[in-house]
Amino acid sequence: MRAGTNALLFAKILKLGLATEPLGPGDEGLLHLARSVEERTLRLLGRAVAIREVDAGSCNGCEIEITGLTSPVYDAARFGIHFVASPRHADLLLVTGPVTRNMEIPLRKTYEATPDPKLVVAVGDCARTCGVFQSSYAIVGSVDAVVPVDVFVAGCPPEPADILRGILAALDRLPKR
Amino acid sequence: MTSDLAIAHLLLGLTVFAYVGGALAALSVRGAAGRALTAIGAVAGSLATLALGLWSLGAGVTPTLALPVLPFSGLALRVDGLSAFFLVVVGVAGVAVGAYGFGYSAHYEGRYSLRLLGVTLNLLLLSLAIQVTADNALTFLMTWEMMSVAAYVLVLTEHDQGGTVRAANWYLGVTHAGFAALVAAFLLLSAGDPTTSFEAMRAASLSPGARDAVFALALLGFSAKAGIVPLHVWLPMAHPVAPSHVSALMSGVVIKMGVYGLLRVTLDLLGGGPAWWGGVVLGAGAISALLGVLYALMEHDLKRLLAYHSVENVGIIFIGIGAGLMSQSYGLPGLALLGFVAALYHTLNHACFKGLLFLGAGSVLQATHTRNMEELGGLIKRMPRTALFFLVGSAAISALPPLNGFASEWLVFQALLGGAAIPRPEVALVMPIAVAMLALTSGLAVACFVKAFGITFLALPRSTAAENAREAPPSMQVGMLMLAILCIALGLGASLVVPALGGALAGLGGLPAVPIGFSLEMPLRVSGTVGEMSPVLVAAGLLLLGGITWIALRLLADRRLRVGETWGCGRFGQTPRMEYTATAFAEPLRRVFAEVYRPTQDLSIDFHPASRYFVESIEYRSAIHPWFEQALYTPVLRLLRGAAHRVRRLQAGSLHLYLTYMTIVLVVLLIVARWPR
C-alpha cells in the first residue's frame, strides 16, 4: 500500500512541475528585505529564527497572510524563517487578533513557556486596537494588555511583506550576542 | 579433606536447622514476633546456603564432596561446582526475600494465614537448597516435588482474590506435566532404580536413541519449570497473584531450577550430545526471549510485565546453553564454556535484578494496592528509595552498562558470535538469526522498562491511591538495597565472576578449566572470540563523561534559570488525564508487531439521541490474546476434560461398586505378585 502511495506522489510531482512563482514586478524590495532578515538572524542567533504563531482570537485574515509567508511565492523558509510547533522551541511569538477571554491564559502561558530572550510581534490592527471586536463581551483587550509586545504590525490584514518588516524590526531589539 | 567435609556438613546442618527453625517459629509464634522469627530463619538459612556455596566455589572442593546423610533413606547429597553456584543463587535471593518478607507480610496480618506463608516459604527455600545438592534421582525428584508443591501453596496465599486459584491450578498442571517427563527421563537414565547415584549415571552408556529420549524428556520437563514458550503460560498467571516476595523468589530462583536441571542432565549426566540438541535449546531460547519481551511490552499489570520478562530472560539463558551445547558438539570446548558461563552468569544476574524488580513492584503494590500501571504515576516523589532501587533494576535488566545485565548479555553475544568459527552451513544460518533476535529482544526490553519505570514512577499520580502512597518500611528497603548493590557489583566485577563460574563448570562434560587472571582494568576477555570488554573501564568512562558534562554545564551554560510548569499546550490546568498512558506508549510497537499480537479492538460510541454530532460517551477496549497459546492448549484441555468425564463414571457413588473395585484390584495384585518371572 505504501509503495502505491509513493508512486502516486511521484507521479503527481512529475506532472505538476515547478510550483514556485517569480515575484511580481516591483517586489525586489521584498527580496532585499527578506535577505536582511536572513543576514540579521544569522548574525544575532547563528541560525534560523524560530517562530511560534498564536491565534489569540483573530478572524483568521492575518493567518492567511502569515501562511502566505511560507507559500511558494515568498517561501520564507529559505531566508531562515521557521515556524515551530511549541513555544519551547521559539525565539519569537507572532500573535494575531484581539485577545479573547478563552485565549488570555493560554497566551500568557505560551509567553511564559518561551525561553528568554524572546520577542513578541503583534500582527494586525485587532492586536493593537481590537478592531471591530472592540468592547465585545468576549474580549479581554489588545495583545499588549496581556503580554509585553515588541512590535505592532498595522494592517487589516497586513501583507506578508509588512509582517516580514515587523519581524526584522523586532530582531533589532534582540540583545547582542 | 575431613575438615572440608566437616565444614560442609556444618554449613548444610545450619541451613536445614535455620529453615526448619523458621518454619517452626512461623507455626508457633504469632504477630510481629512470629514474622520476625520466620524472617530470621529464612535469612539465616539463606546465609548458611550462601556460605556453603561460596565456600565450595572458593575451596575448589569440586567434585569430591559427597555428603552421606540419613544412611538408610536413599537420599544422597553432594556439592560440586554447579551445585555450589546454584547454592549461591538460592542464598542471595533468599537473604533479600527473607528480609523483605518481614515487612511485606505485615499487611497480611489478620487477612491471610501467616503460618502457612512462613512455613511454606522456609520449606521452599530448604527444598531449593537440597535440590541443587541432590546426588541421585530419588533425592532430586523428591525435592523437585517438594519445591513445586511449596510454590503452589505460596501462590495460593491470597486465595480469595480473583484469578488466584485458577493461576495456581495452571501452575500445578504445567509443573506436574513437566514432572512426569522428568520422572520418565530419570527412570531411563537410572535404568529403573531411582537410588542410582549420579556418578553411576555418568558412567552408564546409553544407546543414542535413549540419550535423545532422555534429552527430549528433560528439555520438556525443565522447560515447563523454567517457563520456556510455549510452556510459559503459568508464569504470567501465577507471578502477579503470588505475594511479591514469593514472586521474586519464584522468578529469581524457582524457575532457574529448570536451568540447573537442564545443565545437570544434558551437560553433566549425559556429557553433551549431538549438535541438534544445542540447536533446539538455542531455538527455544531465542523464541522465548523475543515472545517474552513482546508480550511484556503490551502488559500494563506491573507484575505480569515482570513475569513476561522472566520468560524473556530464561530465553536468553537458554540461548547461552544452546550455544554452549552446539560448540561442544563441534569440538570447541573453550567456546562451549563461554556459552555455559554466559548462561550461569545471566542466571545469577537475573536472580538479582528480577528479584529486585519484583520486590520493588511489591512495595508499589503494598503502597497503592494496585498493579495496574495506568493507575500509578508520580511515585518517585512519594517513594524515592523504592524508585531508585527500581531504576537500578530496570537499567540492569535493560542491559545498560556498567550493570550486571550488560556483562552477561555481552557474554551471550560473544558466545553466539564465536559460532562463526564453526564451518558448517547450518550454524552459519542459525547463529546470525539468533544474534539478531537477541539484539531485537534487548532493544525491546529497554523500551519496555522505559515504560515500566516512566509510567509507574514519573509525572503526576493517576489515582488517589498513587497520590497517597507512602515509602516502604525499612525491612523491605533493606531487601531491595542488597539486590541493587549486587546488580552494580556483579556488573563491575564481571572479570572476577567469570573465572569463578568457569571454575564451577570445569570438568562437567569435559569442559576445560580457565585460568583466573587479574589486572587493574579487569578486562573481560575470552579466547577464541571477537571482542573484549572491561566493565570497570566502561564505568570509568561513563563517570568521566558525566563529570565532563556536569563541568561543562557549570562553566559554559547560561545560569539564569527559570522554573516553569510542563508545557501543556496552554491549557488551564495539568491533570493526570493529559499524561502519556502505558497503552499509548506501547501503541507504535503494537502496530509494528500487529501480526504477532493480533489485537482485538472494540470501539463503542454512544450518540446523543437527537443528533449524531453529539457524542455522549466513547468506550475503547483493546485486548491481546496470545493466539498460539489458545491454539496449543485448547485441544489439550478438551482432551483432558473428555477423559475426566469418562473417568468420573467410575465414581458412581454406589458402595457395592466400590467394594467390587477393591476386590478386582486385590485379585489383580495377587496375580501380579505370584506371576512367575
Description:
The complex is a heterodimer of chains A (177) and B (677). With 177 residues, chain A is an alpha/beta fold. Chain A has one domain (5-172): Rossmann fold, CATH 3.40.50. In chain A, 41% of the residues lie in helices and 16% in strands. In chain A, β1, α3 (61-69) and β2 (81-83) form a beta-alpha-beta unit. Chain B has 677 residues and is mainly alpha-helical. Chain B has two domains: 1-254, no CATH class; 272-551, no CATH class. Helix content of chain B is 69%, strand content 4%. Chain B contains 26 helices and six strands. Chain B has helices at residues 2-28, 31-59, 81-104, 114-131, 137-155, 164-189, 198-203, 208-226, 234-241, 244-254, 256-269, 275-297, 302-329, 333-368, 379-382, 384-397, 404-417, 425-457, 464-467, 474-492, 494-505, 535-556, 582-592, 594-597, 627-648, 655-674, and strands spanning 65-67, 77-79, 524-525, 532-533, 600-607, 615-623. In chain B, strands 1-2 form a two-stranded antiparallel sheet. Chain B has a two-stranded antiparallel ribbon with strand order 3-4. In chain B, strands 5-6 form a two-stranded antiparallel sheet. In chain B, β5 (600-607) and β6 form a beta hairpin. The radius of gyration of chain B is 26 Å and the shape is globular. Residues 516-521 of chain B have low confidence and may be disordered. The chains are: A alpha/beta (177), B mainly alpha (677). At the A-B interface, α4 of A face loops of B.
Write the layout of secondary structure elements.
The complex is a heterodimer of chains A (177) and B (677).
Chain A: H1 2-16, H2 28-45, E1 49-55, H3 61-69, E2 81-83, E3 92-96, E4 99-100, H4 101-113, E5 119-123, H5 125-129, E6 139-141, E7 151-153, H6 160-171
Parallel strand pairs in A: 1-2, 1-3, 3-5, 5-7
Antiparallel strand pairs in A: 4-6
Chain B: H1 2-28, H2 31-59, E1 65-67, E2 77-79, H3 81-104, H4 114-131, H5 137-155, H6 164-189, H7 198-203, H8 208-226, H9 234-241, H10 244-254, H11 256-269, H12 275-297, H13 302-329, H14 333-368, H15 379-382, H16 384-397, H17 404-417, H18 425-457, H19 464-467, H20 474-492, H21 494-505, E3 524-525, E4 532-533, H22 535-556, H23 582-592, H24 594-597, E5 600-607, E6 615-623, H25 627-648, H26 655-674
